[in-house]
Structure formats: C-alpha cells, structure tokens
Specification:
Number of strands: 0
Structural class: mainly alpha
Strand content: under 5%
Oligomer: single chain
Shape: elongated
Length: 130
C-alpha cells in the first residue's frame, strides 16, 4: 500500500551512491585537498537531502495540493491493511499460529454485542463484590 519495495530500492540506491562517492574520493586522495572535502560535503548533503525528500516529499505535496483525495486514499489503505482486515483474510489461522484454542472476543464481536458484554462484565463485577 505504501510502496515499501520501491522506497527500499531508492534508499539502497541513495546510500550505495553515498558509500561509493566517499570511497572513490578517499581512495584518490581527495580528502587531503580542500576540493575533495568540499565535494564530499556537497555530495553527502545532496544525497541525504534527496533521501529526506524521497520520504517526506510525496506526503507534503499531496497534503498541499490534493488534500481530500490523499486523505481518502490513506484511510482506504489503512482500512485494507489494518489488523482486522488481516485477521479476516487469515480466518482462524492466527489461532493455530498463537495456540489459541478457545474463542476470544474480537473488536467486531465486542462492538456488535456491546450490551451483552456490558451486562456480562457487570455481573462479574457484582459477583466479585459479593
């Protein structure tokens, strides 16, 4: 939903470029001269700024120019990628993964039967007092 693979690929490319530039300039002896140190500073600044804007640029641009569309898309992505959506797509597989044999109250069950749950909790509270 958030293009993690593309972001990871771009991040790898940027940081590899930083590493290669630093190694090349250091190997040719550029750090001894002022031009080498200035070039390293400029390149590092440019690469790190590009990484910063790679991460924050699209949300800032979308917030300024496409606010409603971006908000709808973000909320739809959160809904489709959320924990409840994952549990619904897994079915009962999470019970086998985590060793849960007895049925548990999920958020959906709790919201659908809130009155029943409230009375159950009130009865438990009253029994504890007595």
């Amino acid at each position: 939903a958030f293009n993690e693979f593309r972001l990871a690929l771009a991040t790898l490319l940027i940081f590899t470029s930083i590493l290669v530039a630093n190694i090349v300039i250091s190997c040719i002896g550029g750090t001894v001269h002022s031009w080498g140190r200035i070039l390293l500073a400029v390149l590092n600044t440019a690469f790190f700024n590009s990484y910063f804007w790679l991460i924050l640029g699209p949300p800032i641009y979308s917030h300024i120019f496409n606010r409603e569309k971006t908000l709808r898309t973000f909320l739809d992505d959160m809904h489709h990628d959320g924990l409840m959506a994952q549990q619904n797509s897994l079915g009962n597989a999470h019970k086998h993964l985590y060793g849960v044999d007895e049925p548990t109250d999920t958020y959906v069950q709790a919201s659908g039967e809130s009155g029943k749950m409230l009375s159950t909790h009130e009865n438990e509270y009253e029994q504890r007092i007595l």
